[in-house]
Amino acid sequence: RSMGWAQSMGENVCFETIQGLPKNAWGWTNKIEQDESFEDIPVFIGASQCAGGHHRFNIDVSYSGTTVTVDLSDDGENSLRKAHVYVGKTLLPEGRGGAPLAAPGRFPVDVEVNDDPVVTFEDLDGGAYYFAVFVNACPEPEAPAEHPSTFYIAQ
């Protein structure tokens, strides 16, 4: 089993530079503007300190109108099994006292990718948003489902 984080080619922020996170936290949160999309965002496995790691597969993220869509479908040699997804106005979800949370299990959306490879966040109020995607993968691919999951973000 492999675990990794998505790093867009657009504006992204390494967790180790975010005040309030432990220094051993690694991964990225990525900025997306309205009517922007990123195809083939690389997901890196084992990129400690946000450097190196292995590019194992890609995801797509788009922001059209009031909806952000995260497409976790993978056509590579690795089958995504589970994903933890965050989309919000802050760099990462916030815990007590507004402290950022990089623990994927604390992200608001937990997806069994083989059931629903497409996640949509609707009714966004415009402007820039951040997304962070953590995935678990296995080497044997399985066919993804055809029906997306839809989530609503409290404004």
Descriptive account of the structure:
- This protein has 155 residues and is an all-beta fold.
- It is 0% helix and 46% strand.
- Strands 1, 2, 3, 4, 5, 6, 7, 8, 9, 10 and 11 form an eleven-stranded mixed β-sheet that branches.
- Strand 5 and strand 6 form a beta hairpin.
- The chain is globular, with a radius of gyration of 14 Å.
- It starts with a strand and ends with a strand.
- The C terminus is likely disordered.
Q: In sequence order, what are the helices and strands, one letter per element?
A: EEEEEEEEEEE
Q: What is the average of the pLDDT values?
A: 84
The helix tally amounts to: 0
Cα gyration radius (Å) = 14 Å
Question: What is the approximate shape?
Answer: globular
| Binned strand content | over 45%
State the low-pLDDT regions, or none: 140-155
Main beta sheet: strand number and arrangement?
A: 11 strands, mixed
Please bin the fraction of helical residues.
under 10%
